[in-house]
Amino acid sequence: MAATIPKPTGPFPVGCCDVMTKAKSLPVDFQPSWLCAQYTDLGSYMTLYYPANTDLDVTNYERASWIPNLHTSWYCNGLSVNNLRTSWFSFVVKYYQKGVTQHAFLNAPLIDAQSLKEHALDDAIKQSDKLPVVIFSHGLSACRTFYSSFCTELASRGFVVASIEHRDGSSCSSFFIDSDGTHTEVPYFYTDITDDGDEIKFLLRNMQLLKRSKEISKLMDLLQDLNESPNTIENVLDIKPDLSPFKDRLDLSNTILMGHSFGAATCLDALHKDKRLKCGVLLDLWTVPLGPDLYCKMRNERPLLVIMTECWKWKKNCDRLKMYANHQKEGSIETVTLKNAGHIDQTDATPIIPRTLSWVFGKDLGPIDFEHGINVQRKLIMEYCTKFLVMSVSGNSNLSSVNFLSDEYDLHKDFSIGYSM
Predict the structure, then answer these.
(1) Domain segments of the chain: what residues?
(2) pLDDT value at position 129?
(3) Can you say whether the dihedral through the CA atoms of 153, 159, 164, 170 is positive or negative?
(4) Which among 16, 91, 151, 421 is placed 20 to 30 Å from 47, CA to CA?
(5) Across the 421 residues of the chain, what is the mean pLDDT of every consecutive 10-residue run?
(6) What pLDDT sits at residue 1?
(7) 343 an active-site residue?
(8) What fold characterizes domain 15-417?
């Protein structure tokens, strides 16, 4: 029996589609130094999650697979490289992911404005004529579909979520399509993950981080095209969904950036550089790629919710996050720790691999019940995002603080406020 990813709780079924734009300038080879070079431009690649109509006949639509259908073996092989660097684990991943699907229907039609207002649960969604937007940035050795528990939850509540696939060598795999239609893999670049001040490792990760931030900004450009002139977008994938219903439907004035681990670091860097991004939700922020200038000196004018897991922490990471917070406006960063949870408990991967193989993940997997952990995080994230939207809609267009974790907020008992050793 295939593993089950937690269902979204919102009133809307979720549609999804893939969009890849044309590669304009190819790397000499697939070392990060070439992938991250200034001139390299592989275009953008995203899975778009969105609310579909409540009367959707789901029997007419296929559920999206968890590991992408296109080039599944590439993605599975990349996962095995990061975890054990052995071929047998690739076989395990291929076996257990077979039949695992997301709670999202491929190319289902986008919800109409009237149905959205009638069925939305949140005032922030009902009061707006447009759909709020979240961009999701994946972590190291993950890809655009690994966080569907969060992406589909947001979409089921009325958000459009653009889950990016980074092509800097940090995804478990990716690919681009040449002008002649050839699919070329962008493989995962393996290196030991350390936090011992190794300058070579920092330079590598920082180089990838800068590339990832640029990819976020390019994706914002693509979302603007989707909102203003969707028919001009050249999707190079064989399956080309109709993007015209997205015209004038996106609220890009309050875009929220969300990411996990390396993706959280990417979000933090991008929030400092691209003023179109208004708010951040950071899951298990990994500070190594950021460098001392950002976490010691730079001031961010955007509100942040940081959710860390109890089993995934070490002193340098804690100290850097604290240093960063100390340089920001009081109250702009709100941090909680999910008790008994590990790094992998913020992805879809936990239910895919059986508990008998949990040793593969080590301290990255916590004792918390996976579905419960996902649900309490989803609730917290939704409530934070909707409060941010309500405050923005009411005229606070340049928010630097949401003041979410106030005395009035009933924080679930599985969270503690703050993050420390």
Answers:
(1) 15-417
(2) 85
(3) negative
(4) 91
(5) 81 98 91 89 98 93 90 81 57 74 96 94 89 98 96 98 97 92 91 68 90 98 98 95 98 97 96 95 94 73 94 88 87 93 91 65 78 97 94 72 84 92 62
(6) 46
(7) yes
(8) Rossmann fold (3.40.50)
The tokens of 181 are what? 């239609």
Per residue in 362-409, pLDDT tens? 567 788 999 999 999 999 999 999 999 988 877 665 677 888 888 788
Which string of b and e fits 211-221 if b means at least 16 CB within 10 Å?
Answer: bbbbbbebbbe
Residue 253 CA: distances (Å) to CA of 58, 122, 208, 220, 364: 32, 18, 27, 11, 36
Instruction: At 84, list the tokens.
Output: 């054990």
Catalytic, out of 122, 284, 348, 414: 284
Contacts of 27 (CB under 8 A, 6+ apart): 34, 35, 37, 40, 42
**410 contact partners, CB below 8 Å, separation of at least 6:** none
Q: Is 407 a catalytic residue?
A: no
Give the predicted TM-score (pTM) of the model. 0.95
Examine the residue annotation and report whether 420 is marked as an active-site residue of this protein: no
Q: Tell me which H or E stretch contains 309.
A: strand 304-309
- Which of 261, 332, 392, 401 is labelled catalytic? 261
- Decide: 142 and 264 in contact? Cβ < 8 Å: no
DSSP state for residue 115 in the 8-state scheme: H
